[in-house]
Amino acid sequence: MSVAHLLPVFLYKLVQSFIIFIIDACKLLLNFILHTLDFLGGAVIKVAVLKLALIHSVNNKSEGDIGCNYVAASFANDDVATLCHDFYYKAHPELTYEERTKLNYDHPDAFDTWLMVEHIKALKEGRSVDCPIYSFVEHNRTDETTKVEPSKVIIVDGILIFENKELRDLMDIKVFVDTDADLRLARRILRDVCERGRTMQSVIEQYTTTVKPMHEEFIEPTKRFADLIIPEGGNNHEAIKILETHIHHKLK
Question: What is the tens place of the pLDDT at every residue in 163-179?
Answer without folding.
Answer: 999 999 998 888 887 77
